[in-house]
């Protein structure tokens, strides 16, 4: 089955979306809705960006007919959500389109085919796309066959750990969560692709559960870990279970026990060749992600790399190097640092492979 990555879709939607409406499908929590923000980041303020939450919309939210007593006719008034008082072209996301009531799906058909809302034409160059879950997910997504033939149905590939971790680093996801994902990458497997049918972490319509690990729920659990000192151990575990599921919560809670091994950032900078190195792999991972988050000068990068090179497991050094090179904030720091350059040469790593 063909599928496209989220970065491929980020390019595809603006490229074809003026004439053909892509409907992006994936299982829950994979980041489909975030495509609108990504496109806004790429295209800037020359467009108006419109989010339409299809399942909760009503006919009156889209357009209404109002009597014109002068002409003795009915005129179509379009909902303000579409920002038609502005002459800018629009980028319109019809979110969860296949969960919309059937009548609204019919109304949206003209928008998807002709770029019209009611009787009002969208400005030239407007882009329309939609999102929905896979029909196999069993969460109520349906679409008439003839309507499906009028649009471009595209499956989005679920982000794996290699794709998600750099994003999580750039977006401030807690280091413990990133360490968990690195240690348990199957928490981002897909029930559609994996032969691991008994995966306890993920969404699976054959074993329905409301809380499970997904790119979305893992990111949202950051606020729990950031406030765990206030919540306490039990409430933290309970909140994690209610966000990422019982299995992921149990493993993440176990990881917390190793945090006492982690030296502080200041200790590492002050004595990178002397401060104690954690014994457990999980504590080493958390330390690596903490360092990636905090280094901000050439000197701090050198000290962090000096410390990380003391790890016996070369994989830890590779994780630090990779995260530094893939991070938007840290890439330039890493590329001009002599210690990292030497590690790259010694380990025969080619930057273009990253």
Describe the structure.
With 354 residues, the chain is an alpha/beta fold. The chain folds into 2 domains: 6-155, 3-Layer(aba) Sandwich (Rossmann fold), CATH 3.40.50.300; 161-353, no CATH class. Helices cover 44% and strands 12% of the residues. The chain contains 18 helices and 9 strands. The strands form 3 sheets. Strands 2-5-8-1-9 form a 5-stranded parallel sheet, covered by helices on one side. A hairpin with a 2-residue loop joins strand 6 and strand 7 (120-121). Helix 11 packs antiparallel against helix 12 and helix 14 (281-294) packs parallel to helix 16. The radius of gyration is 24 Å and the shape is elongated. The model has no long low-confidence stretch (mean pLDDT 89).
Briefly, what is this?
This protein is an alpha/beta fold and 354 residues long. It folds into 2 domains: 6-155, P-loop containing nucleotide triphosphate hydrolases (Rossmann fold), CATH 3.40.50.300; 161-353, no CATH class.
Radius of gyration, in Å, reads 24 Å
Q: Strand portion, in percent?
A: 5-15%
Q: What is the distance, rounded to the nearest whole angstrom, between the alpha carbons of the first and last residues?
A: 26 Å
Q: What is the average of the pLDDT values?
A: 89
Shape: elongated
DSSP helical segment count: 18
Poorly predicted tracts of residues: none
Helix/strand/pairing category: alpha/beta
Number of spatially distinct domains: 2
Q: Describe the strand arrangement of the main beta sheet, using strand numbers.
A: 2-5-8-1-9
Helix content: 40-55%
For this structure, the quaternary state is: single chain
Number of strands: 9
Order of helices and strands: HEHEHEEEHEEEHEHHHHHHHHHHHHH
């Amino acid at each position: 089955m063909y599928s496209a990555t989220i970065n491929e879709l980020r390019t595809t939607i603006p490229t074809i979306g003026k004439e053909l409406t892509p409907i992006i499908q994936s299982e829950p929590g994979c980041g489909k809705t975030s495509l609108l923000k990504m496109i806004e980041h790429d295209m800037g303020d020359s467009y108006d960006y419109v989010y339409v939450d299809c399942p909760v919309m009503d006919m009156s939210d889209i357009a209404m007919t109002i009597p014109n007593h002068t002409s003795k006719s009915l005129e179509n008034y379009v909902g303000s959500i579409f920002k038609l008082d502005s002459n800018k072209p629009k980028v319109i996301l019809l979110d969860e389109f296949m969960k919309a009531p059937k009548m609204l799906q019919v109304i949206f058909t003209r928008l998807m085919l002709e770029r019209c809302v009611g009787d009002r034409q969208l400005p030239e160059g407007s882009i329309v796309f939609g999102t929905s879950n896979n029909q196999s997910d069993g969460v109520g997504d349906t679409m008439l066959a003839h309507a499906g033939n009028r649009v471009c149905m595209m499956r989005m590939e679920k982000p794996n750990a290699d794709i998600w971790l750099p994003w999580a680093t750039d977006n401030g996801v807690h280091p413990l969560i990133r360490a968990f994902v690195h240690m348990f990458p199957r928490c981002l497997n897909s029930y559609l692709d994996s032969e691991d049918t008994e995966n306890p972490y993920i969404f699976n319509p054959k074993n329905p559960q409301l809380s499970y690990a997904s790119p979305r729920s893992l990111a949202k659990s950051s606020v729990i870990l950031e406030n765990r000192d206030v919540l306490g151990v039990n409430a933290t575990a309970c909140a994690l279970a209610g966000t990422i599921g019982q299995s992921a919560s149990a493993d993440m809670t176990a990881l917390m026990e190793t945090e006492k091994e982690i030296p502080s950032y200041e200790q590492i900078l002050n004595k990178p060749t002397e401060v104690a190195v954690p014994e457990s792999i999980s504590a080493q991972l958390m330390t690596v992600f903490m360092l990636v988050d905090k280094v901000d000068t050439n000197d701090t990068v050198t000290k962090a790399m000096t410390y990380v090179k003391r790890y016996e497991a070369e994989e830890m050094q590779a994780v630090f190097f990779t995260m530094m090179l893939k991070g938007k904030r840290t890439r330039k720091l890493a590329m001009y640092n002599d210690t990292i350059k030497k590690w790259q040469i010694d380990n025969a790593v080619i930057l273009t492979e990253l």
